Amino acid sequence: MRIALDALGTDRAPAPEVAGALRSVEADRELRVVLVGDATVACEHPRVEVVHAGERITMDDHPAQVVRGKPRSSMHVAMELVARGDADAFVSAGNSGAVLALAATRLKLPGSVKVRPAVVTVLPTPAGPLVLCDAGANVEPKATAIAQFGALGAAYDRAVHGRERPRVGLLANGREPGKGTALTREAHALLAARAAAGGFEFVGYVEGSDLFRGVVDVVATDGFTGNVVLKTCEGIAEGMFGLVRQELERTPLVRLGAALVAPALRGVAKKIDYTEVGGALLAGVARPVVLAHGRSDDVAIASAIRAAATFVARDLAGQLAATFT
Amino acid sequence: MRIALDALGTDRAPAPEVAGALRSVEADRELRVVLVGDATVACEHPRVEVVHAGERITMDDHPAQVVRGKPRSSMHVAMELVARGDADAFVSAGNSGAVLALAATRLKLPGSVKVRPAVVTVLPTPAGPLVLCDAGANVEPKATAIAQFGALGAAYDRAVHGRERPRVGLLANGREPGKGTALTREAHALLAARAAAGGFEFVGYVEGSDLFRGVVDVVATDGFTGNVVLKTCEGIAEGMFGLVRQELERTPLVRLGAALVAPALRGVAKKIDYTEVGGALLAGVARPVVLAHGRSDDVAIASAIRAAATFVARDLAGQLAATFT
Lengths: 325, 325
Known about the structure:
The structure is a homodimer. In chain A, 46% of the residues lie in helices and 17% in strands. Chain A is built from eleven helices and eleven strands. Chain A has helices at residues 15-27, 63-68, 74-84, 96-106, 143-161, 182-198, 223-247, 252-271, 274-277, 298-313, 316-322, and strands spanning 2-6, 32-37, 48-52, 89-92, 118-125, 128-133, 167-171, 201-206, 218-220, 280-283, 289-291. An eleven-stranded mixed β-sheet of chain A has the order 3-2-1-4-11-10-5-6-9-7-8, sandwiched between helices. In chain A, a hairpin with a 5-residue loop joins strand 10 (280-283) and strand 11. In chain A, helix 1 (15-27) packs across helix 10 (298-313), helix 3 packs parallel to helix 4 and helix 5 (143-161) crosses helix 6. Chain A is globular. At the A-B interface, helix 7 and helix 8 of A face helix 7 and helix 8 of B.
């Protein structure tokens, strides 16, 4: 199996990408990584291949322009490898809007299948993994697209977490059916109608607080709200751990206690650590496309590569596409 | 000073309301509370007055119907006391949509002032209190209303937290000005134009993760997104503390450590405890209206009453209204 990795994606590229690629091939003897980057990229491992690409897509590049412009960028060249079948999946920590736009044109699903590609991400919660879709691709989707996001999330949950009949909720400002906007009320009706055939249970509206209570496996929402929720969770988790660290430094006695509970707290941190999850999946395209965080270190990049490899092994892209045929 | 308290609001009403009223008058010798409720409501304190109202607004009552229906409900009668000037502020833990609809008609700002009432809430963050507006009143507002929410939030922040020139951000799915929806881009332009005259600094778009990094004092958003963010924060805070508690019970050594760090962790919990904050304010009406959580206990109710008293003492309603004249 070969994973194409855009080596110029992270804020400190290409160091995390090169180290992450090495880390992942060392952990999995079946894995090959194609590192696509400029002249600064070098790696001596027999299962890491380096492909050179002179240009770099930055955060300032507008997604729509990226599709036609900068054809020699690392992102274009890596995506091309996947489109041609020379690699099985694509991983990048770069401009996610640009990845999206490129993947939507280069890795389009064949034939009659009409799907709006959407970002699927997994939120670690005390009750287990929660699938969120769309986490940012479609900022102003129609109700039919939001209903699709629920079905995509359910297919992902079934394939990745093995839950036979995922419980899907629609994110809103209250649980009563009268809540929400005109858009969410329309999506509510569509999801209710689609549930039986889609092999999931539709539990109706869920609130922000329901995300952490284990009452749903999948949350469907538009990409604007999904992105805000995802980043709010990341921010609050970081903020709270910062606060805990501060407080546990205060007195010698507290520091002693802190040393005793440190492994337990690390366990908690690990359970809700976003870098462990390994990046978001762009669902609704022909091959697995994994979006890693711009701040990713080598561990996070290796985790994104591992996620991509798992998706390939389970033919996730095919399973998600089948939802719509 | 007299606060009108709807005694039939919480899930376990009227017990938390009666105990909360007592708690608040005992803490503040200047305070009087008018407890409005049915025959089960009784209180013997000289500064707690009981007014009887036969009906109760439930969570199933539709806000629009509440305005005309159930005129003998505790919510109506308590609101009427405030409208007539027999009480200075209103507190309820009941159906917030109903409170909103009632307040919008009974406590309308006089004359030419055109404001859409909005919910202002304070999120505790490691970097200090963060003002969020709108937290749920206007699910599908226009861009002009969202810009008003920023100005309302800034006026609140100035009056309550004493920040002279609050930094206002507009919530979106990214920091670049090209992000967001058509609605947020219009609101972005309006807020930028309004900042100088409004006495606040507009920092542009902020992401969910920025809420906890101390880069803004006020976040403006529509009531749908605001409500989702607020409840997500509540949910994740609860979920994480549940997880920490679980992990700290595992082994005798960890339990010993946990005992030593318990006061420090309680300090953290207090810093981000939503019941301590004391309810949300309905801004843009003639008198302070405080919305408490349906799950409030007596401490949370007392805290909401204290918040209402502070708002009255600082003439917050007047200051917020002045923003628009």
